[in-house]
């Protein structure tokens, strides 16, 4: 059985940025229009006026300061409030495949590999551009890779679940070089017109290359153990998948976009994640003192601070639990991998860390790694 290791990683970042101030201007303009259109019902007490947002509200609620998106002008149009991503011809590369290709090529370059070395691709993401053919198979073709490829969706935990699946296949010998790619166009399923969540998500793509440690050409992170768990909950839900409102004429139903009961999520998910990480570490004989780094899903700064304190038994020191939330916002499955990719190269031989994701499902996944 081969020892799986992360030998390369990469991040694709869109070129367009929406700051909190820009987003608030657009949302408040939309709210003013909505209040004007519904003035009579508001005056009669039938419905409540839509409250304005603010940059302070967003930062205090989440820790987010900006987000990268694939299309900015559609989101910031108060008469539209969702991205303009025109449908592409069937013969053209899909949006997700194009994003993933960039991240995958960076991961391969780091590992000293090419697409021809890859024989497994898992496209692990919250929302897929289409039902079939699989996005992963399209990425396989674009990379000129061999073997096989498939899509998977465990919402925000897709990356860690994908890493577990790929690692198991490396151990079993059914794959020799596996790419786990997470292209997330979260802007397409966010309800930008809802004050409680209009600021949460951003777009990005990540990739990690997993190989037998003995095949690594350079520094690597050995994957010493993986653990995943799920428990059904409706408190984070999306009823209609990807890009529902690409066409303006489609029925406009709030329940078809991202929805969450934030208070219940906070109350139920935090104990689940903290206990999951602690149990995983204990099972492998790890203590809090063994950890050099926690790469957590970038959901909410308060949530991450709580988890870090629970796992370490103290307030994390600067750098022990890196946050990229302020720059990227919540990027679903990609969040913990962005944190890992941008805050791991400084670790030394023998340093240990935990990659952890959590989200809708509920789902939680953890990956114990050691620098080599």
Which tags fit this structure?
372 residues, alpha+beta, Peroxisomal Thiolase, Chain A, domain 1, two-stranded antiparallel ribbon, 10 helices, 32% helix, globular
List the helices and strands and how they pair.
Elements: E1 4-12, E2 16-19, H1 20-37, H2 39-43, H3 55-62, E3 66-69, H4 95-111, E4 120-124, H5 135-143, E5 148-152, H6 158-172, E6 178-185, E7 203-212, E8 221-230, E9 236-237, E10 259-260, H7 262-283, E11 291-296, H8 301-312, H9 325-328, H10 335-342, E12 352-359, E13 363-371
Parallel strand pairs: 4-5, 4-6, 11-12
Antiparallel strand pairs: 1-7, 1-8, 2-3, 6-7, 8-13, 9-10, 12-13
Describe the 3D structure:
By secondary structure, the protein is an alpha+beta fold. The protein has a domain at 222-371: Thiolase/Chalcone synthase (Peroxisomal Thiolase, Chain A, domain 1), CATH 3.40.47. The chain is built from ten helices and 13 strands. It has a nine-stranded mixed beta sheet with strand order 5-4-6-7-1-8-13-12-11, sandwiched between helices. The protein has a two-stranded antiparallel sheet with strand order 2-3. Strand 12 and strand 13 form a beta hairpin. Helix 4 (95-111) packs across helix 5 (135-143) and helix 7 (262-283) packs parallel to helix 8. It is globular.
